[in-house]
Specification:
The protein is about 45% helix and about 15% strand. It is α/β, with parallel strands linked by helices and about 250 residues long. The relative contact order is 0.15.
Length: about 250
């Protein structure tokens, strides 16, 4: 079974979790579409993957713009013949105390994380319905449970879980499963950019005492998009080293 020959779009896959997820899917036989808002990241990743013999194409676009998403999907279908897998991975965070957050901090965080996932799901699901097969994976976060200074981000990620559950109910009879992965602390450049004392504080709250890796998330995606995972839908899979077991 697996994902051999399936077409997979991974948003925000020019770096980090998205890039490694895209690589794992391609290594397992999928035709992969690299998406990022930064064209240079897309071009570099496509070049790197092609040099490894992987079947890949790139699409730079702003997923918060409906017309750009529609054009991206049109190009994918033209080149690869359809879309079977969507991984809504693109995301960002504007953090801060409630009194200091600006309206634009809220807007951009909600738009990139939640609106983008909605627009991409809306754009691809028709092709999945035609084929009576589809896998949509939303990358949320353990932070949807709440965290100080994370009002926009926690709200956006909670929204993604609501979106996951709704689409699972709406599309289940069409052969489409919709699931959510909620990562915890993952060893990415973004985490390494945090001040060292902040990194240590976060690790003290980690039941496993260590960071997760991008492979941990990619392998969870690989499991959920497999053809044999057809009876799993509407679920939140925590890949967080137990961090979801308590708040704070």
């Amino acid at each position: 079974m697996g994902i051999q020959g399936k077409v997979a779009l991974i948003t925000g896959s020019g770096s980090g979790i998205g890039k490694r997820t895209a690589e794992l899917l391609a290594e397992n036989g999928a035709k992969v579409v690299i998406n990022d808002i930064v064209k240079e990241k897309v071009d570099e990743t496509v070049k790197e993957f092609k040099e490894k013999g992987l079947e890949v194409m790139g699409e730079a676009c702003d997923i918060t713009k409906k017309d750009e998403v529609a054009k991206m999907v049109e190009n994918i279908v033209k080149n690869f013949g359809g879309i079977d897998i969507l991984v809504n991975n693109a995301g960002m965070e504007r953090a801060g105390a409630l009194r200091k957050l600006r309206e634009e901090d809220w807007d951009i965080t909600i738009n990139v994380n939640l609106k983008g996932a909605f627009l991409c799901s809306q754009a691809v699901h028709g092709y999945m319905v035609q084929n009576k097969f589809g896998r949509i994976i939303n990358i949320a976060s353990r932070a949807w449970l709440g965290g100080p200074g994370q009002a926009p981000y926690s709200s956006a990620k909670a929204g993604m879980i609501g979106l996951t559950r709704t689409l699972a109910l709406e599309l289940g009879r069409r052969g489409i499963t919709v699931n959510c992965i909620a990562p915890g602390l993952i060893d990415t450049p973004l985490f390494r950019e945090l001040p060292e004392d902040r990194q240590k504080i976060l690790l003290t709250k980690q039941p496993t005492g260590k960071l997760g890796s991008v492979d941990d998330i990619g392998n969870a995606v690989l499991f959920l998009v497999d053809e044999e995972a057809s009876f799993i839908t509407g679920q939140v899979l925590y890949v967080c080293g137990g961090r979801s077991l308590f708040a704070g």
